[in-house]
Amino acid sequence: MKAINVGLLGIGTVGGGTFTVLKRNEEEITRRAGRPIRITAVADKNLELARKVAGTGPRITDDAFSVVADPEIDIVVELIGGYGIAKELVLKAIENGKHVVTANKALLAVHGNEIFAAAQKKGVMVAFEAAVAGGIPIIKALREGLSANRIQWLAGIINGTTNFILSEMRDKGLPFADVLKEAQALGYAEADPTFDIEGIDAAHKATIMSAIAFGVPMQFSAAHVEGITALDSVDITYAEQLGYRIKLLGISRMRPEGIELRVHPTLIPAKRLIANVEGAMNAVVVHGDAVGATLYYGKGAGAEPTASAVIADLVDVTRLHTADPEHRVPHLAFQPDQVRDLKVLPIEEVITSYYLRMRVEDKPGVLADITRILADSGISIEAMIQKEAPEGSSQTDIIMLTHETVEKNANAAIAKIEALPVVQGRITRLRMENLQ
Amino acid sequence: MKAINVGLLGIGTVGGGTFTVLKRNEEEITRRAGRPIRITAVADKNLELARKVAGTGPRITDDAFSVVADPEIDIVVELIGGYGIAKELVLKAIENGKHVVTANKALLAVHGNEIFAAAQKKGVMVAFEAAVAGGIPIIKALREGLSANRIQWLAGIINGTTNFILSEMRDKGLPFADVLKEAQALGYAEADPTFDIEGIDAAHKATIMSAIAFGVPMQFSAAHVEGITALDSVDITYAEQLGYRIKLLGISRMRPEGIELRVHPTLIPAKRLIANVEGAMNAVVVHGDAVGATLYYGKGAGAEPTASAVIADLVDVTRLHTADPEHRVPHLAFQPDQVRDLKVLPIEEVITSYYLRMRVEDKPGVLADITRILADSGISIEAMIQKEAPEGSSQTDIIMLTHETVEKNANAAIAKIEALPVVQGRITRLRMENLQ
User: Fold this and answer.
1) Alpha-carbon Rg of chain A, whole angstroms?
2) Where is the active site (chains A, B) (predicted)?
3) CA of A355, closest CA in chain B: separation in Å?
4) What is the pLDDT of residues B99-136, one digit of tens each?
5) Contacts of A182 (CB under 8 A, 6+ apart)
6) What domains does chain B contain, in order, with CATH numbers?
7) How far apart are the C-alpha atoms of B381 and B371, rounded to whole Å?
8) Do the chains contact at A294 and B296, CB–CB below 8 Å?
9) Residue range A218-245, pLDDT digits in tens
10) Is the ipTM of this complex over 0.95?
């Protein structure tokens, strides 16, 4: 059968991996896809690198627009990243009737609604397995594998850099800044790590998963995003003593009144499988009403794991590229006219449990005052540690775990506690999820 | 769009679950599938039960053949189980041009080659996500999600009953027979638990995964199958002390000379995620050359988790039922003319590590004799425990973990050690996998 011609935009890490894997596993992939899949054009600003990686087979150019306009190309793989030129190229490819495979989570989370509408109109596919959790086929699981379910919530470790840093902070008891430097030296964190450590990358991925899990538009700008830069390793230690681990989770939950969509450091019970996902690995828990909790685990980044997802999409698109659009899985899992306009709730409306750490005067009645405020706010306490005051100090730490409450209610109670004269400074507050 | 009409054969646990979930999530499923999916005929020997579960909507009959012959039916869901009448009905449905969705692992592992050939010839789909690991979309991950990879091995906890029993034996230190009784009382084990505890059910599932992972025919009769009935809880304890857990794994590995396909109790490092899968839960690790190790976890049985998989298949088949067969995923992941005739290797050719427990005379030179035999066979020792002889006894236990070797080599060494006059009785031997 006629080969499928692929145009590759961007020959960096993932582009190189895609090249390598397509070549190494050519026979295996053709046995599955039923026809050869060939990269016949490569565009990169760095022509030398492109020639080095792609060899003499494909046409090599520094003009990406010539690839998306090339009538010989069936599928465009966009691996440039970012919202700028990548958006233009993807929209142009769609306009030219090309199918698109992309690993660009930022682009989809921010401009996905526009891109999928254009693809829908033109009758082409935009596939994006590589955009979330690298080689783990989580998009396929959400869009197809769990299609019987009313998905209730999902929670994922979807940024390897921050999970590596948190694992190291816990293992070695080191502060964030030291571990970040180590991660940069090892290549687990970039020179400018902002997107990772501030939670933005995880929020892009959570936004995409939220849309296809619940049948709602991409709503990245409404996501609540907190990174791990302010995390104190003392809280990792206290959490451990209480039977919890702290992970940076991307969480999305469907509630009748709206969607929760948030990224923040989260305490989770240490006995959950996902609490034991260490280093740069990724994992996502998806809870459906029929299936219960399912978990998907693997490498979330890197040349070949991400290439694995890019090529799986190429095989899917190859199989369906001449099929009637009704035979294809809808881009966002739900039929385009069935996407629901359910809004992301403000963070004050989120329902969760809390870890609270506060410094107090070590004298009688303090605990009674604090627990009274919580009780008056309808917040019950699940566990508590009160440290003995160190020799010669009149101050001590109290750590509390609460049961679930609405965040605005927790905020109000925390403000009241902070206003007590016996409480010193601000209360450290972390969110906690049971994930059951 | 026109509704899809489904004929359901067998309204037991999974049939009832399928009914319930299809009804409860009708809106959500239709929003995804683009058209309603309706059960319009139900066949069961127990008409009363069928009427109770299915209500007055669908046609209810005790003649399953009338359903597979019904011109109104688009898809037949076979939930009868076993190889007898189920095989006849599935083949008849295919002959009548119906697509088939089945949860019947025994049928597919034993007669799959014949069934898929018939379906191929007739141009219909036979979907079987529910046949392996219940609601976990592992078939979809293997057939589609990892299609870029040369899959190297897979290993799964794919029988909830035995995993529940092993978890309880470890937690409570109880012998197999006691825990089996408890599992039966709790409904985790059937009155006749043979298929589960002897590893046959796991072997059916491993056979199916092996075929779609490696592009080989179903070869159930060549699988090596050991259950957990002979497992002594003392070995669970010793394994624990050495940093390992014992799980009943279904393992399949691709080697240039053939396929390993085996089910047996297996020591795995306690720090692996899959070692921490407890109770009746299922999990499968799949290792591909590009993606590395990925893991899929969830409920492997039960009415609604299994219905989740059945209905996901119904959505897939609905989407593609009028599509050209070339647009569909091949039944066994590889194009039908691309299935390779690679044979399952005899167990003697398997390469693995071993846990050995032996009772010996507690006197000088014994350990030297044993380690000499292993060294002469080229088997190196990774770890060892030698227990102190109990007060008043002249005998003690030695526990050894070996590095990898070919099983026939291990067998020969074990026979030589057993022949030593200082070694009492038979050596307990368990296989061990690193799963990295």
Assistant:
1) 24
2) 205
3) 26
4) 999 999 999 999 999 999 999 999 999 999 999 999 99
5) A168, A174
6) 4-137+303-338 (3.40.50.720), 139-298 (3.30.360.10), 351-432 (3.30.70.260)
7) 8
8) yes
9) 999 999 999 999 999 999 999 999 999 9
10) yes
